[in-house]
Structures are given as C-alpha cells and as structure tokens.
Amino acid sequence: VVENEIQARIDNIFSNLERLEILSSKEPPNKRQNAKLRVDQLKYDVQHLQTALRNFQHRRYLREQQERQREELLARTFTTNDSDTTIPIDETLQFNESLQSAHRGMDELIGSGTNILQGLRDQRVTLKGTHKKILDVANMLGLSNTVMRLIEKRAFQDKFLMLGGMAVTCLIMFLVVQYLT
Known about the structure:
Pfam families: V-SNARE_C. By secondary structure, the protein is mainly alpha-helical. The chain has helices at residues 2-24, 29-75, 89-141, 145-180.
C-alpha cells in the first residue's frame, strides 16, 4: 500500500514537472536557461527516487521468494527413491550424438573443401595451357601490345579474385568450425 502511494506521488511529481517544463519555456530568455536547468535537476532527482523505489521492490521480491523457497524446502519430505535423484542420461546421450553428427558434418565439409581446392588446381593448369595457346594464336594473328596487356591485366585480376574467394571459403570453414563445436 505504501509502495503504491509512493509510486502515485512520484507519478504526480512527473506530471507537475512536465507542466513546469512548459512554463519554463515561457520564461524570458535571460531566465529560461536557469529555469530549464532547475527543472532538469528536479527530473534527475525524481528519476533517482523512482530507481530507489524499484530497487527496494526488487529486494523485497527476492526476499519473499527466498522465504517461500526456504519454506518449501523445509516442508518437503525426502524419500530414498525420490525422482529428483535420477541422472539425465538421455540428454547426455543426445548431446553426444549431436556432437558426433557435427563432427561428421565437419569432416564432410573439409572433404568438400579439399575437392574444391583440387578442382581449382586443375582449372589453373587448364587455364595456364589455354593462356599459352591464346598467346601463341595472338602472336600469329599479330594482335597489338595493348590488347595483350589488357589480357594479362585481366588474368592478374582474376588471380586476386580467386585468392579472395579462397580466403572467404577458408574464413567460412573456420567460422563453421568455431560455432558448431
């Protein structure tokens, strides 16, 4: 009852402060800053009172909860075959199976990454051979040096793109390992 009365008074103070803030904005400009500062200080003080009331209510609630739990514990009768003494084997078994499946998934992911890396190596060899053949054909056709430089620049950019893709793939694999284990 007292807490509710205090809360009602704090709410009343807040509403009065809102009206006071409106009135302070109507003060002459030379007094307005000082009046606004005083209203803000009052709001700050009332917020501290509100926080103190909440802390008191929280401590009272915790105290009541502890007393209730203490009474439940004292009123409880223990038997030799109480159901609370069972060991949760099923949960542990499910957790172990989950870990095993995550381990298998990681092995499959690493195998897939190895296959992708081997495929990229094979493509590199193929592209090198193709690049060499293109250069031979270009020399035979007499392409200009500018076109040749553009092709080499593009190959250089593609190399960085491939390295970036490999780095992102490794990063994703690392993050999957970190968060799934």
